[in-house]
Amino acid sequence: MTTTITITGASGQIGYALLFRIAAGDLLGPDEKVRLRLLEIPQGLGAAEGAALELQDGAFGLLEHVEVTDDVAVGFDGCDLALLVGARPRGPGMERGDLLAANGGIFGPQGSAIAANAASGVRVTVVGNPANTNALIASASADGVPADRFTALTRLDENRARAQLALTLGTPVHTVRRVPIWGNHSATQFPDVSHATVGGKPAREALEQIVGDVPAWLEQTFIPRVAKRGAEIIDVRGSSSVASAASATIDHVRDWVRGTEDWTSAGVVSRGEYGVPEGLVCSFPVEAVDGQWRVVEGLDVDDWARARIDASVAELVEEREAVRSLGLL
Q1: Which pTM does this prediction carry?
Q2: Please, which pLDDT band fits residue 97 given cuts at 50, 70 and 90?
Q3: Which of 189, 199, 122, 200 minimizes the C-alpha distance to 159?
Q4: In whole angstroms, how large is the CA radius of gyration of the chain?
Q5: Would you say the C-alpha torsion 183, 248, 124, 297 has a positive or negative sign?
């Protein structure tokens, strides 16, 4: 069996970081052959063609074919997995409405092309920011494709949260679980440690021994550090996070396809869970079962967490209304 994977913005840094890991089998495993379609704007075709040459030189046994195109119909033809990485970044002096309009001009046509050309079981992961609302735009334009096939990447935020907990507690990161991200992939996101475990035990008990005042540490240190980690990396590295974003994308899609062992995080279409308005693409604690994301329901949410979730959801509602006023929904 061969899986066709389309990557938009494939010549960008995140796209470039993704290509070779996918070709090596990190996404779907050592027995799954892949066909890559690198979809770019005309100005990026040369760089994408160079990446395709490198993929050939890598002599990856799982890679059957690479195609470079700037035609969305060709790019999504028969696509099983779509990774929508390319997006318009916010430029100097650009208002949020301008950013949403610019990305609407990208993700709307891509959603239409997915509906017209992709495989019937296509699954779409939006990486390009603002990821939640870009996923909403793409889904609204993909007539006939179930809305739950469109997701937004918040796994990077979760990975950052788990890593910060592991560093604080002095434990390997794989022992830290159940640290979901709620809301928007933005500074309003809420990394939630209420149900986190470390080595199968409640993380809060371990945190009390190390940081003392857990609420103050969460408010003043942990949540700001996770929410602003991207900006911190830009300050230190001189450019945005690339490899970690690609790695989180791999994690998200692999779990979606192969299933999860425990909770994780993804921006999925709300069906009203936890009071989130229906139709928003919101990050929840989720599990992947039989190729579908399912929101983990019935979790206790205290007043402090509720206020954090509501603030991030309110931002998503504002973005949806702004997009709607632009005629993109």
Answers
A1: 0.96
A2: confident
A3: 189
A4: 19
A5: negative
